[in-house]
Amino acid sequence: MKKVLAACCLLVLSHAYAAQEPEAVFSRSCSVCHNGQSPMAPKKGDQEAWKPRLAQGADVLVKHVTEGFKAMPARGLCMDCSDEDYKAVIAWMSK
Q: What angle do CA 60, 66, 69 make, to 5 degrees?
């Protein structure tokens, strides 16, 4: 029984998922630029602006967020976000 329980815990912990709600991350860290204040940042919900960015793939977009890209500050001002959090908020913003 202990082995089964340990295996289940390991499986749950190894599964990557967004720990934070995308809307909360957006409101706290992304909204200043992605609500239209920065002309270079694609606005939330502007599917045409997001299309070429999404075409680059999630790994490139997460790299841009974590390292900073053009006017975007490193980590997108979300110091406690994981890669999965970034992927979730990017997906949420681009819809």
A: 70
